[in-house]
Amino acid sequence: MSIVKMKHLRLMGLQQDREELLRVLQRMGCVEIDEPVVDRTDPEWSALQNPDVTALIHARERGGEGERALAALKRYAPQKGAVRTALTEQELFDQARLEQGEQAIKAVLEAEQTLAALRAQQTKLETQLQELAPWLALDVPLDTPSTKEVTVQLGTLPALVEVSEAQGRLQAETELARLTCAGSDAERHYLLLMYHNSAREQVAALLKELGWTAVPPRNWTGTAQENHTRIQRELTALAQQIEATEEQLRQLGGARERVQQVVDRAAVDADREEGASRLLDTQNAFFLEGWLPQDSGEAVSRALEDFACAFELTDPEPEDYEKVPVKLKNNWFTKPLNMVTEMYVYPAYDGLDPNPLMAPFFIVFFGLMMADMAYGLLMLLGGWYLLKKLHAKGTMGHMGGLLVLCGVSTFIFGALTGGFLGDFIPQIAKLIDPNSNVQLPYLFTPLTDTLAILVGSLVLGLIQIITGMAISVVYQCRNGHWVDALWNEITWWIVLAGAALAILGVGNVAGYPVVLFVGLAMLVYGSTRNAKGFGKVTALIGAVYNGVSGYFSDILSYARLMALMLAGAVIAQVFNTLGSVTGNVIVFVIISLIGNALNLALNLLGCYVHDLRLQCLEFFGRFYKEGGRPFAPMTYKTKYADIIKEEN
Question: Which of 66, 463, 551, 625 could tie 263 with a disulfide, CB 3.0–4.6 Å?
């Protein structure tokens, strides 16, 4: 597999053909429209302007309204087992279906707006009920007015003040005032105050001392109980309206697919209009620049021949490689590794596709760390569900494929180690029959063959590092940098091979490890060839130190393969042991399944992160040239439906 070679498209066409031409390119799904690189100060280009983006804004707004409608339907008419549907191009662009979906969106949003208003009114009335509650025992109308001679006022006193004490002090102060208690709570007493205006100053002074707070009238009419009854009736009517509106939303759940189609259509239109926003326009013509895969050049050329336009397809120049989008050409085996590549960074256009180089190592390492048949089966099931039932696309689709591949690897290593939910089978067999000696067959186990697994992990690491060095040598030689390959990579191969032969006592001539001496001589020359004077010494010391410490630490990093395999096995066995201590088969199964579920979740995350680290740091660092951006052609990018393209 490799990075797909790209062609640069430059096109000048008539304004009247622009919309149809963009639709054709979008249907083909192989052209990424880029910002034109032109000198806008040049008189020949000065007349070109960026297009109006009103249609793009409208498409995005339409999609946003559709998403809000779907969110409302999800709350009131939830759908079970949501899956991607299939639409033909004719159905996607059918105007009648679009109008039906837009009408459904309008109905849903209006119903949701109505529901929000009803609930706001409901909250308001419930608040009023809470305000009325302390005054319910008062049989005097709340809107009783003051007169020229008498003041009527509602108010409160702190709960620390005794009502009887307040009434007594007011009575002692003047006989022209009365204080009537309507109710009390933990914080306040609620009272009706009536006094003759001639006693205003006496009443005001006393009540200020007691902590009196006047309650402003709310335009109530009638007694508190009458208002309470009225509000209760209004709340009952509101509850009925809310239920009717919610039922309306539930009924609109049947239009979900039409709403989803509007969202998908809006996404398609927005993608096309976003591409159109990168064009340069005049009143009668437009200019387009973009990229397409080399193998799509002939098909695009044939499609453009139907339009009155001038275009050219050229190969990018080396100085333009930074701007060229990157498309990775992968098969079913390596495509799921796009999830890893996208999480790291895309390779440069003149770099190497890491997926086929990384795939065997990533999958084997993951399976080695998980190493459990049951976990492998569950991963296979999860991947199958994502791919076949949910028809997951993009990153989720890559995750599904990766779960399947790593699930197979996990099952194989689980079979080699005899792991099935740890030691679940032997433990439950012993619970059922204490004399049972059931044991799954195994080639090695993490608990008894730890050292062998550690050595094997380091050997796998050495193989990956040497593979990375070999890729680097090939890449450098292909680009004409064979001198750097010789002194930076091949020299260390000879040194390492010589050291291995010397340790084994093989290949010595007259008792001397000739291969090692040759490698060391090459190391001395290669590391100092570009240095002068004392700099040769520091260059040699630096090369030896960095090389030895670098290779040692890199290889030692692969010990994490053994560590995670051991940790997963131990955690599974610990939960199985906790369950077996109870002596009850049912309790054992419950504890074991809960513990293994937690172990599986932890291991899925841990193994992925550590596997990713080994690939990105130890492997990619030897040959990977980063800096690319993914190829993003204008196409049918839908969220809810798969578009079936029809034959012309």
Answer: 66
Q: Tokens at residue 581, please? A: 């201590």
Q: Which residues contact 523 (CB under 8 A, 6 or more apart)?
A: 491, 492, 495, 540, 543, 544, 547
CA Rg value for the chain: 39
**Measured between alpha carbons, how far apart are the two ends of the chain, in Å?**
31
The enclosing domain of 156 has a CATH number of 3.30.70.2750
600, two tokens: 């599986």
Six-digit token string for 533 = 């004077």
Buried b (16+ CB within 10 A) or exposed e, 400-429: bbbbbbbbbbbbbbbbbbbbbbbbbbbbbb
**For residue 335, what are its two tokens?**
């495509």
DSSP assignment string, 541-581: HHHHHHHHHHHHHHHHTTHHHHHHHHHHHHHHHHHHHHHHH
3 state DSSP class of 371 = coil
Q: What is the mean pLDDT of residues 366-379?
A: 95
585: Cβ contacts below 8 Å, ≥ 6 apart: 428, 431, 432
* Lookup result for tokens 């992968």: 330
Q: Note whether 327 and 293 are within 8 A (CB).
A: yes
CB 429, CB 438: distance < 8 Å: yes
3-state SS, one letter per residue, for 120-146: HHHHHHHHHHHHHHHHCCCCCCCCCCC
- The answer, yes or no, to whether residue 497 has pLDDT greater than 80, is no
Residue 170, C-beta contacts closer than 8 angstroms, at least 6 positions apart: 177, 178, 179, 203, 206, 207
End-of-domain residue from the set 193, 216, 239: 216
Cα 574 vs. chain centroid, distance in angstroms? 33
The reply to whether 206 and 347 lie within a common domain is: no
Number of helices and strands in the chain (H, E)? 21, 15
Its pTM stands at 0.78
**Residue 228 domain-assigned?**
no
Those residues with Cβ within 8 angstroms of residue 289's Cβ, 6 or more apart along the chain or in another chain: 8, 9, 10, 11, 33, 34, 35, 36, 37
374, 375, 380, 383: CA torsion to nearest 10: 150
Do 493 and 366 share a structural domain? yes
Residues 493 and 620 reside in one and the same domain: yes
Tens digit of each residue's pLDDT (9 = 90 or more) over 310-359: 999 999 998 889 899 999 988 888 889 988 888 888 899 988 888 999 99
Return the structure tokens found at 252.
């609109």
- Distance (Å, whole) CA 31 – CA 292: 5
Do 639 and 66 meet the contact criterion of CB atoms below 8 Å apart? Answer: no
Q: pLDDT tier at 530 (50, 70, 90 boundaries)?
A: low
* Within-domain flag for 241: no
Among 256, 253, 250, which residue's Cα sits nearest to residue 85? 256
Tokens 């196409």, residue?
635
215-233 residue pLDDT tens: 887 788 899 999 999 999 9
Please state, in angstroms and as integers, the Cα–Cα distance from residue 524 to each residue in 399, 472, 486, 487, 503, following that order: 47, 21, 13, 10, 21
Helix (H, G, I), strand (E, B) or coil at 464: helix
**In terms of residue numbers, what domain contains 399?**
335-628
Structure-block tokens of residue 367: 């399976």
> Domain boundary residue among 168, 184, 216?
216
Closest CA relative to residue 321, chosen from 612, 611, 65, 626: 626
Pairing of strands 641-644, 85-88: parallel
Phi, psi of 37 (to 5 degrees): -100, 95
CA 489 remoteness from chain centre? 39
Residues 564 and 574: their CA atoms lie apart, in Å, by 15
Does residue 219 come out as left (phi exceeding 0), alpha (psi in the -120 to 50 range) or beta?
left
Q: Give the number of domains in the chain.
A: 2
Is residue 395 in a domain?
A: yes
